[in-house]
Amino acid sequence: MAEYREIITKAVVAKGRKFTQSNHAITPQFQPSSILGCWIINHKYEARKVGKTVEVSGSFDINVWFSHHDNSKTSVATERIEYKDVIKLKYQDPDCLDDKQVATRVLQQPNCVEAIISKKGNKILVSTEREFIVEVIGETKVCVAIHEGKCTCDDDEEFGDELDDREFEEINPDFLVAHEKD
Length: 182
Description:
By secondary structure, the protein is mostly beta strands. The protein folds into 2 domains: 4-145, no CATH class; 152-181, no CATH class. It contains 2 helices and 7 strands; from the N terminus they run βββββββαα. The strands form 2 sheets. A 4-stranded antiparallel beta sheet has the order 5-1-7-6, with no helix packed on it. Strands 2-3-4 form a 3-stranded antiparallel beta sheet, with no helix packed on it. A hairpin with a 6-residue loop joins strand 6 (98-117) and strand 7. The chain starts with a strand and ends with a helix.
């Protein structure tokens, strides 16, 4: 019998990470006097492998709370933003057999860094940032050493999955009844 075996298994074969900053201009219904708050909600995304990159396509809503009419009224301007981040991959296993499965994790959800009124005063300029990490999972070969003889991991005696007579005698049959009376 050989001393080594090749096993085909799934493993992380490539990784990538990308931090993105972007600017967006929102045109509110009224000319803003001041910005009262800005937040990002409804973030959705999906990822797919394209060549030696992963494309993360997604969208989110920017909501800007602002005052208008000389700070006498407030409104919320909402705009849906769509994006596509292309993340370069660093391959750990260039000889993988299949690498179509992508695991994507958001390290930083899209958030507002700054929201200001434009110089002309008719738009709100919003700076955002987000960060993703992606892992490509593929089939690859690993080489394992074979040990002749009995495997020590087959020893079930260590786990003690059976109770002996002494342990049965220690069980209080009125345990549940005693707690119900309290």
